[in-house]
# Entry
Amino acid sequence: MASVVVTGEHRRSKTALFLIVCGWAGVAPHWFDSLRSLLPAITLACLLGGYGLRTVLVNRKKSFEASDISLRPIELEDWPTVDVLVAARDEEAVINRLVERLTALSYPKSKLSIWIIDDGSKDRTPILLKNLEEQFSIVHVIQRSRSAGGGKSGALNEALTKIEGDWLLILDADAQLQEDSLKRLVNFAKSGGWSAVQLRKAVINSRNNLLTRCQAMEMAMDTVIQQGRLAGGGVVELRGNGQLLQRTMVEECGGFNEDTVTDDLDLSFRLLTSGGKIGILWDPPVQEEAVETLSALWRQRQRWAEGGLQRFFDYWPLLTSSQLNYIQRRDLTCFFLLQYALPVISFVDLLTTFLTGTMPTYWPLSIVAFSISGLAYLRGCSLAGEGPSVPSPKPFNLLIAIIYLVHWFVVIPWVTLKMALLPKALVWAKTTHQGDNNTKG
# Structure
């Protein structure tokens, strides 16, 4: 299948149209009497609630677990070659730990290469990388100017021109893997016929404060939802850190899109529309840091929300075409309505309530959405797993985690408004990593 070429044209006009439609949907029910005003919300609550319940409660297949490699020995020559790619900028706090963990992986060293792309770091990262490159023969450093452009995607694309491995493992600089993680991941990908596999993201600093605890629960919830979407015939999305990619498939998709702020979400749709299969693994996880302050969360979630909307606007003609089957199109439509349309409509609904003195009209849908999220939290935090422990699904934790999700009902309307009104200058708004100072027991 031909590579997918997306230029990100007309995003402002598409966002403006989306904003107008959501605004109309949020205001219109207030024109009706009290009973009729609830009909849109009740109808959507039934349709999207059914989708959400199926997604969370569907039986998981055994194929979501990596098989025990000790029971399936593989000869050296049968292991594929793997290139680990890490785009790093100002990562002096974590880069030594990352490379030491990667070089300690039990994967055959003759089949493994580690590529660190230093994207114009201004701290001690270049010095540390030079020492690591001299110390470990499988470590290769690529130097890029800070003004080279393209963000993380540009850094990864530069590495693509130099590597020849069968598979790519994309990691963030704060990633931590278990010693046998790569073997199990590759074994799972090959045996399942996947074009890409995403590892569950596990938070290593969940005990630091209430915010990191909520993010740890959010990552478990996200994996449960992703597994449910896949088990129901829907779509799985990559999450950037801990994603294994078949190199030839990435090249067929045109590499990493430098015209987006979230390369992982964009690549998910490129793979999907090119016929690639994406799997997801609960164990082993990839461990990473959660942000610890509200300001850092605000910056991170704005980028995630903008990238999420960009890929839907960019690829919507393909997503609604016959290239995808009916179940995949239904899954994407329901996910888009819950993740992006509902927060904007709810915000407009509450604003209209304040201005007109009428009652809110979308509370039935919001209650259903938060209830499904609570159920996904409960299921995700109840599952046994390797790596850092997930906060227990006690009533207090569940309540706080559900309240925490309200931030999306502020972030997404704000980002939508910005995308509709302001031109976008693509920058790498990276998350700051703290390293060993970011874990407290």
About this structure: The mean pLDDT is 89.
